[in-house]
Structure formats: structure tokens, C-alpha cells
Amino acid sequence: MKLEVPSDVAAAPADAEKTSSGLASKVLTAGTGSEKPGAADTVTVHYSGWTTDGKLFDSSVERGQTISFPLNRVIKGWTEGLQLMVAGEKRRFWIPAELAYGENPGGGRPGGMLVFDVELFEFKKAPEPPKTPEDVAAAPADAETTASGLKSRVLQKGTGSKNPSATSLVEVHYSGWTTDGELFDSSVARGESISFPLNGVIKGWTEGVQLMVEGEKRRFWIPADLAYGENPGNGAPGGTLVFDVELLEIK
Fold first, then answer.
1. Which among 84, 106, 128, 192 is placed 20 to 30 Å from 183, CA to CA?
2. CA angle 168, 174, 176 (to 5 degrees)
3. Element (H, E) at 71
4. What is the rounded CA–CA span in Å between residue 60 and residue 64?
């Protein structure tokens, strides 16, 4: 399918809506829905993208296949812009460089202002983020403690009878907090469990998940020396970490 270059690709028209970030947009087709997606919701769209000189650089329409993705995993202009839309709506966006890939991004990505036509077909609400544990600051007196200093308590009894080994492949759901209650990672919030070999993760997980059986949910207080250390850098959280882990399956 050959796409026509928008007549207003060079610049947003005077009647375009503008947000405080500099994002401009115009509704091309009114939607049929009433609810709008949130920043963590997963959307299904068709889109086409042009540079302001009219060069088409990407199009799901030309490929004949819609695309789905969480809104917080894309360029800022998309994260902000699609939250303005309802299902069934088609909208044109003029996205400034700072909300896209920058002026000279390299890696084959287009620079400068980008123009996208986006049609929102549907969206799936993200799961509610888990609540901060009431005992996140410190393990309670009745927590189990191992020789390494790992503390834990069972939140939900399991249905299985065997424990994984240090080399087992396990499937889990988990959420992790710093001791001041900041949620830094959660498979629950992503709505997607994760599988990994137990000898490929932090020491506190390798040791702790071996205490569990399938179907069990347990809270761990993992000292820094069994996690990422006190000041790990690279965006990893430091100090004691608190994890709620549900062991879904030993594979």
C-alpha cells in the first residue's frame, strides 16, 4: 500500500493542539471509545512516520501488521501523545526532536522533528502496581534468618513438595523495593512472569528461592552483600532490598 505524504508534514498547522512539552497533534478520525490509555498500558496501533522533508522512514500500515507495546517503552512523544487518544481515533503528531530521537541520533534512526499518523485500535490496562509492604523498612522479629543473613517470611503456603536446586530453572512473579518503600522492579506490574536459572541471579535469590516450593509466595529481606552492594551504580538499587517472590514453577 503506497502512502501519501501528509500535506502539512513540514510543520504543524495553526489549528493543531499543542501541549506544554511542545507536542503538536491533530485528530484525523474521531474515535469511538471514551477512555484513554495510561502511561503503562499496552496499546495496539497502526502508524506511519515521516521526517519533515516528507521521507517515510517507518510504517506498520505498509507492512500490513499492527504493533502492540507498553506506552512507557517508546519515545516520549508517543508516551504523551497516545494518552490523548481514545480507541478508534486516528491522529497526526508533530513530535519535536527532544521528544523523539534527538537532532542527530545515529544508528539509522531519524533525527529532528518527526511526524506520525497513529491509529489506536485498542489498549490493555496495565496491572495495578503492588502495594508497598508494611514491613519494608526491616524484617519483623518472626522472620526466618539463614546463616548468610538472608531473612524471609512466608506470605502464602505452597502446593508443591520439592524445593529447587541452585541450578534449577524457575518461573516466578516478583516485586522489589528499597527499604524506604521505592518500587524499583516488578514482573507483577508488567503482567509477565519471568524464568531464569537460579545460579544466574543475585546471591539472595539463589539462596532464597531454594527455600520455596511451587505455589509459595515469600517476602525476602536481602542484605546488600547478597544483592548489588551498597553503591552499585549502573542504575541498580543499593543496600538491603525487599522482594516478594511467588514461585510458579520449577522447570
1. 84
2. 120
3. none
4. 6
What is 144-250's CATH number, 3.30.565.10, 3.90.180.10, 3.10.50.40, 3.40.50.150? 3.10.50.40
pLDDT tens per residue, range 130-165: 999 999 999 999 999 999 999 999 999 999 999 999
The C-alpha cell of 222 is what? 536481602
| Whether the model pTM is above 0.85 | no
Q: What is the pLDDT of residues 109-125, one digit of tens each?
A: 999 999 999 999 999 99
Measure CA 167 to chain center: 28
Q: How far is CA 181 from CA 91, 96, 227, in A?
A: 39, 35, 17
Nearest Cα residue to 95 out of 138, 47, 131, 130: 47
CATH topology for 17-124?
Answer: Chitinase A; domain 3 (3.10.50)
Strands 169-178 and 151-156: unpaired
Check if the beta carbon of residue 203 is closer than 8 Å to that of residue 228.
no
The answer to whether 23 and 95 have CB atoms below 8 angstroms apart is: yes
The whole-angstrom separation of Cα 224 and Cα 148 is: 11
CATH code 3.10.50.40 region(s) in the chain: 17-124, 144-250
Is-contact 113 100, C-beta < 8 A?
A: yes
Name the residue with cell 518500587.
183
